[in-house]
Amino acid sequence: MNTKIILHILLNPVAGNGKSKKAYAKLIQFLKQKKIEYSTHSSSYSGNLTDIAQKYGNSLHSKNEILLVIGGDGSLNEVVNGIKRSQHPDTAIAYLPAGSGNDFARAAGLTNNPYKLVNQLLQNYPAQQVDCGFFVDNDIKNEPIYFINNFGIGLDAYIVNRSNSHSLKKKLNKINFGNLVYVSNIFNALIKQNTFSVTVRANEKEYKYDNVYFTTTTNHPYFGGGVAILPKANIYSHVLDTVVVQKPNFIKFIKLFTKLIKDGSHVNDPLFHYIEAQEIHIKTNIPEYSQIDGESGPYSKYDITFKIDYFNLRK
Ligand SMILES: Nc1ncnc2c1ncn2[C@@H]1O[C@H](COP(=O)(O)OP(=O)(O)OP(=O)(O)O)[C@@H](O)[C@H]1O
């Protein structure tokens, strides 16, 4: 049954190197055609969507009002953090993926077609609880920090940090050559990333790994824009998975990479480990880069506890 809805759109105008603006334009055209009421709040700076979402979650809204995010994983992350910190942390979120990687949308099987999404929202299906992870960083006001995809330390974080800070990428993005810098950063990271030691505590057991290339604590299979690092993970499992990959030699790396792309059998390799739990504690021995949902995190040693939580998603 179609109901009357009012959309409150939270737009990241720079996501997906312009994709979000195009998706927004299509959406607005359709909303006007269908005579659907809407308001738009565009982010003006990094982190702005968290404040806008928190404000939204602090007020009461009627059942037919829907919060809709347009952007990539970073934008959804900001909105989830804002809603979870608000007075109504159960406020449901609808999401139109329009970023570069869109890993969460891939994991949740979301449409990136604005017309399809609006038609779904008009059906007024109940919101679904989907998993997200969080950790508490004692340096940042003791507030939980939520992630929808993963928290990575080591190789993936090195690539994210180099790519996000690269001024050349910003220039090349304008002419659609930003991916060249991304690819060159991957090669650079593969050579330069050092190894470190990780201790993982979960399910009342302790696991120690040396010679670690990267570790990522993930909510679903994907990272880096569609790489299925842990195919069996899913956003309804109510557990997180910490993946630990030890550094392979060059030949082994090619083999592992082929398995990863071909059939996911990399998960059976002796250098690949994963631990599944509702609460996972990680300790590293030297400073490393980190990434949270594809955004640069701190460069430090980590002694950090990850826990599972959920947010309400309107599909
Ligand atoms: N007005 C703005 N100006 C500059 N940066 C912004 C603005 N609004 C949001 N941001 C930042 O844009 C960055 C990218 O957003 P987002 O992650 O959604 O897109 P993406 O990187 O293209 O997609 P994905 O994460 O799916 O690959 C985020 O770091 C976000 O904080």
UniProtKB/TrEMBL annotation:
<keyword id="KW-0594">Phospholipid biosynthesis</keyword>
<keyword id="KW-1208">Phospholipid metabolism</keyword>
<dbReference type="InterPro" id="IPR050187">
    <property type="entry name" value="Lipid_Phosphate_FormReg"/>
</dbReference>
<protein>
    <submittedName>
        <fullName>Transcriptional regulator</fullName>
    </submittedName>
</protein>
<dbReference type="InterPro" id="IPR017438">
    <property type="entry name" value="ATP-NAD_kinase_N"/>
</dbReference>
<dbReference type="InterPro" id="IPR005218">
    <property type="entry name" value="Diacylglycerol/lipid_kinase"/>
</dbReference>
<dbReference type="InterPro" id="IPR016064">
    <property type="entry name" value="NAD/diacylglycerol_kinase_sf"/>
</dbReference>
<dbReference type="Pfam" id="PF00781">
    <property type="entry name" value="DAGK_cat"/>
</dbReference>
<keyword id="KW-0808">Transferase</keyword>
<dbReference type="GO" id="GO:0016301">
    <property type="term" value="F:kinase activity"/>
</dbReference>
<keyword id="KW-0547">Nucleotide-binding</keyword>
<dbReference type="GO" id="GO:0005524">
    <property type="term" value="F:ATP binding"/>
</dbReference>
<comment type="similarity">
    <text>Belongs to the diacylglycerol/lipid kinase family.</text>
</comment>
<feature type="domain" description="DAGKc">
    <location>
        <begin position="2"/>
        <end position="139"/>
    </location>
</feature>
<dbReference type="Pfam" id="PF19279">
    <property type="entry name" value="YegS_C"/>
</dbReference>
<dbReference type="InterPro" id="IPR045540">
    <property type="entry name" value="YegS/DAGK_C"/>
</dbReference>
<keyword id="KW-0067">ATP-binding</keyword>
<dbReference type="GO" id="GO:0008654">
    <property type="term" value="P:phospholipid biosynthetic process"/>
</dbReference>
<keyword id="KW-0444">Lipid biosynthesis</keyword>
<keyword id="KW-0443">Lipid metabolism</keyword>
<keyword id="KW-0418">Kinase</keyword>
<dbReference type="InterPro" id="IPR001206">
    <property type="entry name" value="Diacylglycerol_kinase_cat_dom"/>
</dbReference>
